[in-house]
Amino acid sequence: MRQPYYFIIIGVLFSVMLTAQENKPVFSGFVRNYTGILTKDMDQFSILQNTFNINVEYRGQKTGFKVNPYVYQYFDKNIDFGLREAYMDFYSDKLDLRVGKQQIIWGKAEGVFITDVISPKDLSEFLLRDFEEIRTGVTSVKLNYHSGNHTIEGVWVPAFTPTLMPETGSIWAPKLSFPINPTWDYSTANKNLTVANSEAFLRYSLMSSAFDLELVGGTFLYDDPAMHLTKQIDPVTRQLTSLTVRPDYHRTNMAGGSFSVPVGDLVIRGEGAFYDGRYFQTVSPTAADATIEKNFVHYMAGLDYTLGGVKLSTQFIQERVLDYEVSMNNDEVETTMTFLAKKDFFRERLWLELFAYVGLNNEDALIRPKVSYSVADGVDLQLGANLFTGNTGRFGQYDDNDMLFMKLKYSF
Amino acid sequence: MTNKKTNYKQMKTIKLLAITVVLLFSGVNMMNSQTTGLQVMQKVYDLPSGKDTQAELTMTLINKQGEKRVRQLKQYIADEGSVEKKIMYFTAPADVKGTSFMNWSYSSAKDDDQWIYLPALKRTKRISSGSKGDYFMGSDFTYDDLGERHPDEDTHKLLREETVDGKPCFVVESTPKAKGHMYSKTITWVLKDTYIGLKREFYDPNAKLLKTLTIKNFKKISGVWVILDTEMKNVQKNHSTTISLANVKINQGVPASKFTERSMTMGQ
After folding, report:
1. Higher pLDDT, residue B34 or A369
2. Is residue A63 part of a domain?
3. ipTM of this model?
4. Minimal Cβ distance to B126: which of A265, A267, A374
5. Which pTM was predicted?
6. B181 and A CB contact within 8 Å
7. In total, how many domains does chain A have?
8. Contact assessment for residue B41 and residue B170, using Cβ atoms and an 8 Å cutoff
9. Is residue B60 less than 8 Å (CB to CB) from chain A?
């Protein structure tokens, strides 16, 4: 076990449970086997994972808590034990206070992160993890003020947590192209636990008959690193002799919002955010470390609809760099679409689902067909595929990772 | 995904208590020989059902082999005049536990507003009120079956009077005015003394009997007639669904704060 001190936390919380008077703690969770094979080599597993996930929740009249430990056991690497959430709640008529490690989800977009920037992402399996597992908990203080269906939410995150990237050698490690094998300098990647490095967020939300609305803002360290390059060039041959890559996380400010509105049988969703400064890679000779800071906008428009019993959903997403320069490595505008079709059979016992990300810039895609069958109440069998198309781009870079998978999940 | 069991997008007009909690009868006179089918169904529709209701609901899906799948939830309903608000918390099975669903239904022609909270997503999502003809949570009840269908939507004909289990009933045939409805007609047996709909037959577009709804148990709680046990049987596919209510509380006061995003996310 990598983090045995979690047991101490759990022990303390269980002690609290035993003294709880108003309600009993509730246990829930799941056990799951997840087996995948690569289609290019049907003899090779892409994943062989067993998961145990348990939620222990207690909710009294004025207080409560939740602990969500998990264990991932793999065939080819160390067991992964952690706490997805561990927090305490304090309630009053108008105020809710939550303190501890928690997942905080904002916005209306699905499968895309625009204003949903508080909980860092776990991309150790790219975007393939289930939604509840792709966001990591973050230690924070969250205060909500409620007035009818209006809510103001403030969040303070004292310690920075970056996006969890795939391990070196993983089939999901992003393809980075450097002219020579670089040296990595992580001196600035680990952020000190200081108030100056803390993050703060604010949200106003409204749920009304006509529409739902969120207005958000935040100042935080961007969860994905900027790669600062230092090159050594031989003055005689003008050849690159060494390359140092220094990942760093930079502060940015974000303001945005999201909405959803019913229009007949449709639900129209939208979300957008403006980022005051993000770092991008550039080949400009004037950029000393091959990075450049630019403002950035990220937005989405989506539709949900049901036709003939088939649930349909689509989203149009764009990421746009403002004041773009042609020397930048990425495109000025990157456009992605998502599509979802889902239908049940046999009184919701069998579900067919097709979800796809399509990248329009690189003509690449991730296509995820899935069949789910409810073997019994709480027991689900899933058979599916993750199919990557294209050669480059966010999805095309994993073209060799097409996989078939099976998940057997017992919920309790 | 937990949402796969909830069939949430079609939760239009669930109005579960419309079939499970209904029909206060207070001194309605027996109808004379001029009674029409419309008058009977209007009486059924007009009877009050309490200002607010709380209950625990168990829905059992039974297939033709007799195998059972059980869904349990808590529900709260409040009549706020021009809008009826309802919130449901799913408590079983385990993979839908923690899911909540809220519906605001309007006395005007406005479409219902609906939201669902999925604990796996930690997000409250607005959903389309969708098709009334879809089945609720894989049961034999459509959203239309569970809703309060206004008498003006159908043409009614009083077929006869007869007794069911020794109880005198009006027998009313109702034919949808709109084309393309999933039922070509329904026939309802309405108790003459309480105006409770005791039994209903649903006919498919080919005029063949599709489903039969039977009230198994009802009693008066806080002055309101409450239907506690009901069964819907699909006679063509030979499967059925039962709905039972427990811990029913009428007019105990359900606060407005119950029908908020905060309540959905907290699950209580």
Report:
1. A369
2. yes
3. 0.87
4. A267
5. 0.85
6. no
7. 1
8. no
9. no
